[in-house]
Amino acid sequence: MRFIITKNIIENVIASMQPFLEKKDASAITSHIYLEIANTKLILKATDYEIGLESHIDSINEIEEGKATVNGSNLLGIIKRLKNEDIIFETTGNNLVIKQNKSIFKLPMYDASEYPNMLKDENLNKLDISTLNFINSIRKITPAVDNNNPKFELNGALIDVKNDKINFVATDTRRLAISHLQNIANNESQFIIPKKAIIEIQKLFIDEASISYDETNLVIQNSNSKFFTKLINGKFPDYERIIPSNLKYSLSLPKSQLVESIKLVTSLFSNIKISFTSNAIIFESLDEDSESQTQIDINLNIEENFYLAVNAKYLLDFLSMTNNENVTVGFNESNLPFYLEDEKFFTIVMPIVLEK
């Protein structure tokens, strides 16, 4: 195998493949990136069996067909140090040789024929949805996906395809985040995407791509890349029973003033109390060792005073994902879960219970 390629082209692709490599065991073939020259293209693959990426590059010169594997981390380390000029790659014996000007590097290879097969995209169900809408919807709920919950299904986002809409759902048990889109042509189904995959999807795809799935895999691909992830096998909690059927108060509030006030009182401590009166919203830190307070003067037209006590991170996560100048805050009474909404995105937050 041999080819010549410009540094910045291959560096970008090799860098994008780092999250898909086995990091704990450098002796595993899955710590390697697979390279193959076929049909005048360079094909690169990386996978740790749970998640994977395949990319194609056309802009290569002086090619000889063949295939190789090389440790992905070491390869990136070398490429980063080279000049932004052409690089020669060729196989010699059991090594991949990398040359630029008078610099030469040799990296050991494994048997490329033993590299794991990437997922075949046959017999998959197509998810008929705009890639941009898919990514925007999943981005909004990402902060609410749990990290190391013993209930594995909570370490991912549920895609719940209903007859009339598609719900994107995540919960860390302290909050429930839901973004939804209209369902035009998809059959009803449910699947859970792991958090790692959710994060990588947002990095990889900004243009239109096809999205497909079956009971165990999700595949997203465009003309240059194919991404796959294993899905989480489990039953997501019945999230719809948590959604309130009615709210005593539903207030439209200025987002920028909320963000400014929350950040002011959380400079030392993240738990806050927000009190609502007929003509003001008062923000107070719940830190016992110091005192922080500010307020927004605003006519709320409510009949009785309420308060919300909460970890401010949940509020700021929600507000950072909203698009409009105003957001809706809904509640029934103090010490009960409350509701945050911006168009097709809402979050229900469990409060910190205070003694009345």
Automatic annotation (TrEMBL):
Domain DNA polymerase III beta sliding clamp central: 130-238
UniProt-annotated location(s): Cytoplasm
Source species, domain of life: Bacteria
Occurrences of domain DNA polymerase III beta sliding clamp C-terminal (ranges): 241-344
GO molecular function, one term: DNA-directed DNA polymerase activity
Predominant place of localization: cytoplasm
UniProt domain DNA polymerase III beta sliding clamp N-terminal: residue ranges: 1-118
Keywords: Cytoplasm, DNA replication, DNA-binding, DNA-directed DNA polymerase, Nucleotidyltransferase, Transferase
A Pfam match: DNA_pol3_beta
Family recorded in the similarity comment: Belongs to the beta sliding clamp family.
NCBIfam families: dnan
PANTHER family, per database record: BETA SLIDING CLAMP (PTHR30478:SF0), DNA POLYMERASE III SUBUNIT BETA (PTHR30478)
Record's protein name: Beta sliding clamp
